[in-house]
Amino acid sequence: MTFTPDAYKMWNDVKRRFSIGNTVRVHQLRAELAGCKQESSSMLDYFGRLSSKWEELLNYKPLPACTCRASAKISQDYEEEKVHMFLMGLDDARFGNVCTNIIGLDPLPDLNSVYQRVVREERRLLSTRVETRQDAVGFVTKTEPSQTGHEKKECWQIIGFPDWWTERNQGGDRSGRARGGRGCGRSNQPRSNAMQAQPSGGRNIPTLTADQWASLTALLEQQRSHPIPDKLNGKKQMGEVILDTGASHHMTGDARLLSDMCDVVGCPVRFADGSAVQATRCGVLRLSEKQILPNDRFTRTLIGPGEERNGVYVYRDVTVRQASCGAVYFVTIVDDYSRAVWIHLLLEKSEVKIVLPNFCNLVLRQFGHPVRTVRSDNGTEFLCLSKYFAENGIVHHTSCVATPQQNGRVERKHRHILNVARSIMFQANLLIKFWGESVLTAAHVINQTPSSFLHGKSPYECLYGKRPSYESLKTFGCLCFAHKSLRDKDKFKARSRRCIFVGYPFGKKGWKLYDLDSEEFFVSRDVEFVET
């Protein structure tokens, strides 16, 4: 730079002399984005290349800043442009269907959602791709043309004789000379491209070298020592499983039988011969379609019965009766003073830790007396509440092992409930899926039935101090018609729903009904019963 007294002029000269615009680089970035293809690279590499170019282009050509509604529209258009760039560069052979489905969506999802779908498809393709690689043994026969005047690639002795030659010379003299073609040669037998069986004494049998025989023998031994597993045939042979409730862990040497596996700290496993290995993974063993054996012996949850075989117990599958509401179990709570009974349907036994504390709060709020003592069996669903009992000053009594008579009051009440529930179900001729409703109805009827033990009073009367009302009692499973609140425009359509009575809902002044046409449960007060 030459000396100049005007600073403004000097900086203008510097700007004009050394300033280089970004137009060329922007053009290069747009060209690279247009030609960016996935080809054989992974989705992560392909998306990384696009992201770096988008970021650099955004530095040179930032989006216009605007406070009006046009700013959101500009950002949305820019996002859609990146989605189209990303989809156009994908491998059409692998992701063509996914791209078609995404483009057909309206509105078009954002770039992150599109990337997630494509990555999910890539992982699915990788998981379903089974590559079986084996070392192939090649048999090469080298044959030179015996006649001149033609090239090796057109020699029939090498590439095989045509069909018309075989048909013309079939049954004739096989030592004659070929006619009608460019190439000619002598042959003791017509040849083809496929290898044909030769007599043991023939002269045209290809001979194998010692290395080829060794490779063939190794391949056959490998196939014999590695048979096709049953998993490839769609079979899963698990055999008999020996379950031990006192064992710390159940073990298997076949990882294919486990699901949801995870890495654990190495645990030594010793065998009878004194050797030991390290167990580094654990998982879930599926015993049947419905039963699984989790990796946890502390819950002591019943998973099914077993039968004794040669001194050990072997698991035997059991069918679980599921109620119409989805419940599998029910817990029975009996008041020691009034003999009143409460029943709660459970999806899992672990729900007891929620039901029982809620029941204690209900008793305290409704009757003004806290629960002082709880007596139960040794089920884990009750033992896990020891902390709650200790914090609230509740004494927990448990019966001794194999001594159910110590909890006989609840056991007898449980038998009473089941007897009544079976009776009303058989009388109503209902399906077994209604066992949950029948058990709840049986408890409701028992609470309102006078007992000689209570001197002619019912549990309801002892608990609330007044006689129960029997006006709402109906025959379980009887036919009834409920008022239809949503009427059709047709004046000759039915004004009621054909149902059956299945119980008394808690906290509502109505009846629980089951619609025979729509197969759904609902509660209604406007009902006409047909009990005869």
Provide the helix percentage: 25-40%
- The CATH class of the domain at 330-464 is identified as Alpha Beta
SSE string, helices as H and strands as E = HHHHHHHHHEEEEEEEHEHHEHHHEEEEE
CATH A-level architecture of the domain at 330-464: 2-Layer Sandwich
How far is it from the N-terminal to the C-terminal residue, by CA? 116 Å
Percent strand equals: 15-25%
According to CATH, what is the topology of the domain at 330-464? Nucleotidyltransferase, domain 5
Low-confidence stretches: 130-146, 171-205, 226-235
Find the CATH superfamily of the domain at 330-464.
Answer: Ribonuclease H-like superfamily/Ribonuclease H
Number of strands: 14
The largest pleated sheet is described as: 5 strands, antiparallel
What's the Cα radius of gyration?
42 Å
Shape: extended
Whole-number average pLDDT? 77
Structural class: alpha+beta
Side by side, the strands of the main sheet go 13-12-11-10-14
Counting DSSP H or I runs of 4 or more residues, the number of helices is 15
Your description of this structure?
The protein has 532 residues and is an alpha+beta fold. It is 35% helix and 15% strand. The chain contains 15 helices and 14 strands. It has helices spanning 7-18, 23-35, 43-60, 70-88, 92-103, 111-128, 156-159, 163-169, 210-225, 352-367, 380-383, 386-391, 408-428, 435-447, 459-464, and strands at 258-270, 276-286, 292-293, 306-309, 312-315, 329-334, 341-346, 373-376, 395-398, 479-483, 496-503, 511-515, 521-524, 527-530. The strands form five sheets. The protein has a five-stranded antiparallel beta sheet with strand order 13-12-11-10-14. Helix 2 (23-35) runs antiparallel to helix 3 (43-60) and helix 13 packs across helix 14. It starts with 6 loop residues before the first helix and ends with a strand.
